[in-house]
Fold:
Amino acid sequence: MFVEPALPSGAVVHDEDLILYRALDQNEEPTGPITGIEVIGFLEFDRWEDLPQLDLLWQLPGQEPLPLDELLKRLQRELRQQAKQIVSPA
Amino acid sequence: MGTESSQGRTETPRERIERLVAEGRKARADLERALLFWRQRLQAGILLPTGEMVRITLDDLYHLLVDDRILRKPERIELILLSIFEIRQARQSRRRVLSAWQEGERHLFGFAILDSDSRVRTMHVIDERDLRKYAKEPVLWSRSELPSSGMGQKQTSSECS
Structure:
């Protein structure tokens, strides 16, 4: 999940499954503002308490701003539903 | 923040990269170079130092290119997979490949996540100190000579379980 408008970004490890993206500086180091988050194994992820505590609200196009954990839980429900439909199309 | 396309469905990495190139936010030349590198060097698979062949589909490639340090230098995909010093057990039957290599004067570190079917799920260039965050994951394989990785004790095993 990425912030728009997109900035050139690199990875900073938060923990085993969580990667934060930060804007790259001139030396190609991710020292700038947070530009996104990647959850490895997102469909199975349940360690919501381990998400980075960011003083930011996140917003998907057409939806209301939410804390990161609430938005990711909502997104996970939708993706699980999509995955279920792919496995067993109606 | 952009994860969904204008149709409200989740935007795939491929759709995102192509949109950002079309918007001029990522260099088309970088993407074309990465696609060429994939066709020439990655598409047929890469043989790890352990003897395992890993695969990178075109969709996988787009996922890797989300990291601009990979997009700008796609040869790092191959370097990360060939410069492994350790493989660790990650969650859900995934494995984490840890790598170290040199580019000129710079010592670089990275990791890749391999799925159980040997597909490369994700990959990043990371800071050396971030390697410590994987210290709790069980070691499956390691080179006998470790680089200065900050991972703690020296490993001597060369078996891949």
Summary: Residues 3-142 of chain B form one domain. DSSP finds five helices and seven strands in chain B. The longest helix of chain B spans residues 28-42.
